[in-house]
């Protein structure tokens, strides 16, 4: 599907000759260039976020246990996007704590 979309998009592209580009007869001012560029001034609000994780692991016993190995295939994250979190455990009596804090504000 992705290759079909790429092929269609390549077929729909168009070309333009340098002679067809209309250039202004006078120099472009700095103000016009500042308004035209992609970068904008962004004001940031700083927010401190915390996640307190206080796990305890006491008095556990593991007798006659077998631990294996963790294997991830070469394409395990091929189609992933955004924020990913992977936790693997090969042991016994293991306390795994994980925390992800995300604060996103788009205005």
From TrEMBL:
Residues 1-18 form the signal peptide. The keyword Signal applies. Keywords: Signal. This is Carbon storage regulator. It comes from Vibrio ezurae NBRC 102218. The lineage of its organism: Bacteria, Pseudomonadati, Pseudomonadota, Gammaproteobacteria, Vibrionales.
